[in-house]
Amino acid sequence: DALPIFIKKALVVDEIVDTGETLQAVLKKLQDAYPDKEFKSVSLFQRERAVIKADVYLHLTSEWVWFFWEI
Questions:
Q1: CA-CA-CA-CA torsion sign (35, 37, 56, 47)
Q2: Predicted confidence band at 2 (pLDDT cuts at 50, 70, 90)?
Q3: In angstroms, rounded to a whole number, what is the distance separating the alpha carbons of residues 32 and 37?
């Protein structure tokens, strides 16, 4: 489905950017599909070793992050 014409910008939100491969793939797919739109990303946690960084993140970490839904 196409994004409505009135949408010019979109925010991709995730709880963590670990390797960065998923965020990188999602942003590429969105930019390829909608070259006239602007995409930004935000994450609660950003791993230092990721191949891409979110535009905005709350915590930079090199440690493994446990979320309550994983326990």
A1: negative
A2: confident
A3: 10
Q: What is the pTM of this model?
A: 0.86
> Do 45 and 61 form a contact (C-beta atoms < 8 A)?
yes
Are residues 57 and 44 in contact, defined by beta-carbon separation less than 8 angstroms?
yes
CA atoms within 13 A on the CB side of 5: 0
The pLDDT score that the predictor gives to residue 62 is: 95
The pair phi, psi for residue 44, each rounded to 5°, is -70, -45
> What is each CA distance from 16 to 2, 36, 52, 56, 60, in whole angstroms?
27, 27, 12, 11, 10
**Cα(30)–Cα(45) distance, rounded to whole angstroms?**
22
